[in-house]
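Shall we go through a protein fold together, starting from nothing but its sequence? Please make up or recall a protein chain and show it to me in full. Go ahead whenever you are ready, and we will take it from there.
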Amino acid sequence: MKLITRDTDYALRALCFISRSNAGKFSVTKLSKELGMPRPFLRKILQALNKQKILESTRGKVGGFILAKDPRKIFLTDIIRIFQGRLKLNECLLNKLICPDQRTCLLRKMLVKIERYVLKELDSITIASLLK
């Protein structure tokens, strides 16, 4: 199981760079060079962040991306959900059907407890906290 995918990792690094720099708009080309990421891949990520109102974009010669939200209000779990969907550590499946022992399974109860703890911890991480 991979907690953070490449898309999420690239999005976090781009958001941290934009937050840290605080130097106006950043084009995809500039961000790609600064961060060492493939331009088409980064562009797709930035567009997804723009669509979710994490970033704002303007087109044209002097266009680019800027933060649309305060870095203290952009949570790691928000970015994970955008690129990976709902974070689920515990999904009991048996032949593509929900497990019939779901209510009585002791392992599931322990995993649910761990999942709640992990999600609570992840919910406390913001872009601003990653800049420290």
Q: What stands out?
A: The CA atoms of residues 90 and 110 lie 10 Å apart.
